[in-house]
Design a protein that fits this description.
- Helix content is 28%, strand content 29%.
- It is built from twelve helices and 24 strands.
- The radius of gyration is 21 Å and the shape is globular.
- The protein is α/β, with parallel strands linked by helices and 438 residues long.
- Strand 6, helix 3 and strand 7 form a beta-alpha-beta unit.
- The N and C termini lie close together (6 Å).
- It folds into two domains: 219 residues, UDP-n-acetylglucosamine1-carboxyvinyl-transferase, Chain (Alpha-beta prism), CATH 3.65.10.10; 213 residues, UDP-n-acetylglucosamine1-carboxyvinyl-transferase, Chain (Alpha-beta prism).
- A four-stranded mixed beta sheet has the order 22-23-1-24. It has a four-stranded mixed beta sheet with strand order 2-15-17-16.
């Protein structure tokens, strides 16, 4: 579905951020593993999350939709997850498949995971290798990618793993496997990653120990532990909120309020960076839900200045660099983003894809092996951007067109539904003109 973004007047209004994708995945998985019933409100109903919901049904839990955003899970509890009768299709969900690999490993089980073309090109060894150290067997048809089959005896051994990656997915997979493993399972990371799994495991009754180690930490779980069903209210996704926020920042006269945004310290690197660039971005009405801090964010059009983004900030905003690059394209001066080679193994090579979407639309940008340097100014626009079936590249290109001199077209917008199914609805609500063509 080719889609065009046009330059418009000021963006105005109040919108709610869609449910957080990371927490939505975890709530479904932990609810399925737990004993008893878990009630979820605010679940993101994007394609990635629906793939995880269907996976939990295939693994023996009962996952039911009551109405929009409201779901009930009857967990497997002590009976445990079961081997599915057919391969589990995770679609485009990298978080879903990696967390599921960890979750099933503590049970006597055999399961095959597959995904779409994009997911099937992404590395899985970073999760499978530590799980193998715990005792699973696995087979990947082509090296380190999907499809992959995991066979577990359900009798794992605890490990003390030092992760070479600052990855919440790796950490979470190991912790999930540790739920049903005797002894203390630990993971050490040299740089802090998202802590949603730790927060949610606590909400389900697990004891998590966290020790600060320099700039990183050591996270441990003592198993086995019986998780107990609970009530979960999903906060708004800061990664999704970034798109209307930056659209308002770059569009003269704009003034919007994005409500219900999660402000977890491991997820707000983009907001910190935008503030350093000079953005009017004010968070208030702070409250807490399910162990997560939530706020409403007031945003106004701002004249931005280029900055050097600290490399150590990358884990807290790794998914937001494409949309930050859009903000940098309209800033005065040069913005430098380095230390983000991890972006090359996302749904697409996001460094290359972001470089292409900018340079085709008249932005002065240089590509590095581990990042980008962007000299801001006016954006000519007028080009058609190849999205490489990557939802964040698609949305970033459309936001770039919000204030470009000429409309910007993307080759396909269908994959946006994987993470932000209400993107077009919310952008139209604040006055953006984005048209899906036939």
């Amino acid at each position: 579905m080719p889609t065009i973004s046009y330059k418009m007047g000021p963006l105005k209004g109040k919108i709610f951020a869609p449910g957080d994708k990371s927490i939505s995945h975890r709530s479904l998985i932990l609810g399925a593993m737990a004993k008893g019933k878990t009630n979820i409100t605010g679940l993101l109903e994007g394609a990635d999350i629906m793939a995880t919901a269907e996976a939990m049904n295939k693994l023996g839990a009962r996952v039911e939709r009551i109405k929009k955003g409201e779901w009930i899970i009857k967990g497997c509890g002590e009976a445990g997850l079961i081997s599915p009768s057919e391969p589990i299709d995770c679609g485009n969900a990298g978080t879903g498949v990696r967390l599921l690999m960890g979750a099933i490993s503590g049970y006597k089980i055999s399961a095959t995971f597959k995904g779409d073309t994009s997911l099937s090109s992404r590395p899985m060894a970073r999760v499978l290798n530590p799980l193998e150290q715990m005792g699973i067997e696995y087979n990947c048809d082509e090296g380190e990618t999907l499809p992959a089959t995991i066979i577990s005896s359900g009798n794992l051994k605890s490990i003390d793993y030092v992760s070479p990656h600052a990855s919440a997915q790796v950490k979470s997979a190991i912790l999930l496997a540790g739920i049903n493993t005797s002894g203390v399972t630990s993971i050490t990371e040299h740089t802090l990653s998202r802590d949603h799994s730790e927060n949610m495991l606590k909400a389900f009754g697990a004891t998590i120990n966290i020790e600060t180690q320099g700039q990183g930490q050591k996270v441990s779980i003592k198993g086995p532990v019986t998780l107990k069903g609970t009530d979960i209210s999903i906060p708004g996704d800061p990664s999704s909120a970034a798109f209307p926020i930056i659209a308002a920042i770059i569009t003269p006269g704009s003034d919007i309020l994005v409500q219900n945004v999660m402000m977890n310290p491991t997820r707000i690197g983009l907001f910190t960076t935008l503030t350093e660039m000079g953005a009017y971005l004010r968070a208030d009405n702070y409250r807490t839900s399910g162990g997560e801090i939530i706020a409403d964010i007031h945003v106004k059009y701002s004249q931005l200045n280029g900055v050097i983004v600290p490399e150590e900030r990358a884990p807290s905003m790794i998914d937001e660099y494409p949309i930050l690059a859009v903000a940098a394209a309209y800033a005065k001066g040069t913005t430098v983003m380095r230390g983000i080679a991890e972006m090359r193994v996302k749904e697409s090579d996001r460094i290359k894809a972001t470089f292409e979407l900018l340079i085709k639309n008249g932005v002065d940008v240089k590509e590095h092996s581990d990042g980008l340097s962007i000299k801001g100014g006016s954006v000519t626009g007028g080009a058609t951007v190849l999205t490489h079936h990557d939802h964040r590249i698609a949305m970033s290109a459309l936001i770039l067109g919000i204030n470009a001199e000429n409309p910007i077209t993307i080759d396909d917008s269908s994959m946006i539904a994987t993470s932000f199914p209400t993107f077009f609805e919310l952008m139209a609500e604040i006055g953006a003109k984005i048209e899906v063509t036939k």
